[in-house]
Amino acid sequence: MDALTLLHSRNSAPKLCEPAPEGEALDAMFKAAFRAPDHAWLRPWRFLTIRGDGRHQLGQLFIKATQQRRQQAGEPAMTPEDIDKLAAKPLRAPLIITVIATIKEHPKVPAVEQVISAGCAAHGLLLAAHAQGFAGVWRTGSNAFDATVMQGLGLQPNEEIVGFLYLGSVDGNYKPLRELALDDFRQDWTAPAQ
Ligand SMILES: Cc1cc2nc3c(=O)[nH]c(=O)nc-3n(C[C@H](O)[C@H](O)[C@H](O)COP(=O)(O)O)c2cc1C
């Protein structure tokens, strides 16, 4: 696949199955992530690979965090069906990569630039997965921003979850890609006459 075809055809796949990228394929994905633009070479990211039983443990963490959030908000406790549904969420893919922005103090590089850089790294992972015939989808949701989840995953106070990348092989068909009109999103700019 040539580079432009790859860039034009990446498509999220919510339904994923085995095999997941592993070994050299996974290494190639991380090498692509490490090419993310990065102001001042801060390397403001790190990644947790979660597979096998780790996905069950992640599900339990999501349950604990959601129960606490609901309790704090005075909402009713989750039903057993809610709990089963949440436990099954991380099982939707054979591999999950948690992309973490590790924000460093820097006089010229604000936190937002570092989070963007980590987002570019996440995109690099997805593109390199696609280049090798694998598929994925970037997810967040309330649990990505939850202190209990962050703590359970070992995040430090200067870290944020940028996303959970669910990865594997596409199960079924890809959705059709929607064409966007270029001119809906770009304008030529010159300064208005004074
Ligand atoms: C930061 C971020 C968080 C996202 N979180 C979710 C999510 O929690 N659930 C979801 O269904 N899609 C989420 N998405 C959107 C999907 O990853 C995907 O972009 C969307 O389904 C459109 O598909 P496409 O990327 O193939 O066009 C998120 C995207 C981004 C960039």
TrEMBL record:
Residue span, Nitroreductase domain: 21-168
Cofactor(s) of this protein: FMN
The keyword Nucleotide-binding appears for this protein: no
First-level EC class: oxidoreductase
Keyword field: Flavoprotein, FMN, NAD, NADP, Oxidoreductase
Name listed for the protein in its UniProt record: Putative NAD(P)H nitroreductase
Keyword presence, GTP-binding: no
Coiled-coil residue windows: none
Free-text cofactor note: Binds 1 FMN per subunit.
Species classification: Bacteria, Pseudomonadati, Pseudomonadota, Gammaproteobacteria, Cellvibrionales
